[in-house]
Queue: 2 jobs
Job 1
Amino acid sequence: MTDVTRTARRTAADTEPMVLAFDVVVTAVQHLTANFRRITFGGACLEAFGVAGDTLDLRIKIVIPSAGRPCPDIAGMMAGGAASSWYQRWLGLDAEDRGAMRTYTVRDSRCAGPRPEIDVDFVLHLDGEGRGGPASEWAAAARPGDRVCIIGPNSSAAQCTTAGAYGGIEWSPGLAQHVLLAGDETAVPAISAILEALPADIGGHAFLEVPDGQDIQHIGTRSSVGITWLARGQRPHGELLEAAVRDAVRVPGWVSLSGAGAASGGREPEDVDIDRTILWETPQLLEAAIVQSTVNPGRPSGTQPFYAWIAGEAAVVRGLRRYLVRDVGVDRKQVAFMGYWRKGRAELA
Ligand SMILES: Cc1cc2nc3c(=O)[nH]c(=O)nc-3n(C[C@H](O)[C@H](O)[C@H](O)COP(=O)(O)OP(=O)(O)OC[C@H]3O[C@@H](n4cnc5c(N)ncnc54)[C@H](O)[C@@H]3O)c2cc1C
């Protein structure tokens, strides 16, 4: 994925790499719900893992070794090379030695203590014969002692005053006091961590679509964001999520949600061919594109009272993007739309 190279940049001072490779071991495995398994990773190296502040929707890469093979030596590939060349070297390995790289969210991290650990909640998307993608199959069988490599933020670079914001966190509501969070099961870890970090003066809605009623989990939050779980059952993926968002953010006039005045529709957003590219549109990326172009910037992102964060299966996210941007007229600079996975397609790399 391209964000591997994007986040592998160095700090302004060019002294500290923004990301490091962490060779970690599974220290605990917990069946959370019918379709979620929490895997705790530990290792002294995780002392160097972290961001300045809450992890929110912090994403990491997990390199899963092929069965019976050791983890590729990503730390060795990173040492001494240009900030992103390790990725090309990793891609150049034989498939068996390379393993599989997948993207996950840090559900919780305890890296400052004597036994540094992070938790990752894996969705087990397996068919009736227990077959899924490499990450899902690995998570279903994982046991304490198993090893993977995690690529994630270098805490000392994150604390450095010259460091730019780490590219692995997208949640960025700015001054918004009304928020909309919507996602499927792959976004549950991120939405949960965001809700746990929200201050008391934030309101809005969080919609979480999960495969089954038994996947509903407790999420603590000081905010007054209303949390709604949607159990999919046999319905098509995203149907309940889309209906819930349409109901919460109506056309015309999303005044009740945003407090920002009624909107009367917006422009059709450019189509994203989700078969060829990753659907990833965030205020930060739009802002950067506007700065580099001559397009009228309009109101800068982060200055409006409403902010939305949408993640999940790419076609569902694309449909929600069209609804919010074109039909409702929500400013694109106030919404992060992220395709976390694509139906029928393995993650690139
Ligand atoms: C920023 C980010 C954060 C993410 N955080 C998490 C997280 O915390 N927890 C989590 O479980 N996932 C998370 N995901 C999604 C995860 O990366 C994908 O589901 C990934 O494809 C799983 O890898 P795999 O090896 O199991 O399947 P792949 O080899 O990538 O895919 C194999 C097949 O399985 C299908 N598939 C993939 N994911 C699913 C799914 N969830 N349900 C049904 N079918 C699926 C694919 O369409 C494909 O046909 C995140 C993704 C991103 C981009």
Job 2
Amino acid sequence: MQRIFLDHNATTPIRTEVREKMLPFLGELFGNPSSAHSFGQEVKVHLDEARQRIADQLGASVNEIIFTSGGTESDNAALKGVALAAGSGHIVTTVIEHPAVMQSASYLAKKGFDVTYVEVDSGGVVDPEDVRRAIRPDTIIVSVMHLNNEVGVIQPIEEISMITREAGVPLHTDAVQSFGKLPTKVDDLGVDLISVAAHKIYGPKGIGVLYVRKGTRIDPLIIGGAQEKRRRSGTENVIGIVGFGEAIRLAEVEREQVFQNLEGLRKRFVDGLVERIPQITINGDPERTFPSTISASVARVEGESLLLSLDMEGIAVSTGSACSSGSLEPSHVLVAMGIDTVLAQGTLRFSMGRGTTGEDVDRVLEVFPPVVERLRAMSPLGAEWSAGVGGPTC
Ligand SMILES: Cc1ncc(COP(=O)(O)O)c(C=O)c1O
């Protein structure tokens, strides 16, 4: 059976060109880039080259690039690092952030920092004026994600940054989903800190970057050696860094063409779903949604069952829910958008990538409607669900 991967927001396969670039670092190029001898220095050249590429992509200086272990670490380092340097104060973030930001903020709240979570509208968009109202004289950082991983909504970072600049507060954005897919020049966005990761753009897992604008007050989370100019100690993940540099170079070359292709695929996909499946809702402000992501809420079925049924057909997607400690929690993003919790539990996320084809979309459109019909017919909770009560257990 031919498998179709529609979970590119979770991760992407490493591109052949990226893998080839990485291979010598599993063999002869093994030196430690901090070593002064030739083994170290021949590796450092490649590390510097990758750093330059990532800096260029962000419109930043190489001195503002800190390599991390990925998006999660970059988010933690941004929020906790600024908080550590400030000692006390107030943090502004939003209700739709990735858990790496949400939980860093709630951790800091437990440590005595005040946190304000800005709401979103029903399309999943933050109103910059709400950010303005949330900022206080003691605000130390504002963190608003660029592109949401669950519904694909792009936030108005440029407008938010005009407000944070006026207030003199550093702005962090989690650009893990947008880097290499949307323009992310730091001066155009107006941000002071950016989190990015390689594995969302056909690079390796376990490597990311935190960009920190020169002059931003931030303490390191990881100390020890003097790597990354003492801002993130530990021998560099050279193989990951080299792969990241190549992944972003290739992503930028084809960025616009991939975007156009995704736009066409999205239209075909969404039109097909709405035409063939009664009681389906596509989530997210259509004017602000990046075309790769389709978040669809299907009434009277449970997301996990849909996911498993599609998986049996070779189609990989994800749900809008997180299953934890025996109960099926609806997605905090969908709930924040005002979507009914039962409907939120019947939500699937299809996330397309550079390799997704029209045939892939047509296959899903062929397989998915009968799956929904079958599960709706089987659901013992069908009647209660349509009445809006009851719900699935995990
Ligand atoms: C928006 C966003 N931020 C952060 C992360 C975490 O990145 P990583 O998997 O590299 O730790 C992800 C990954 O899913 C993400 O989508």
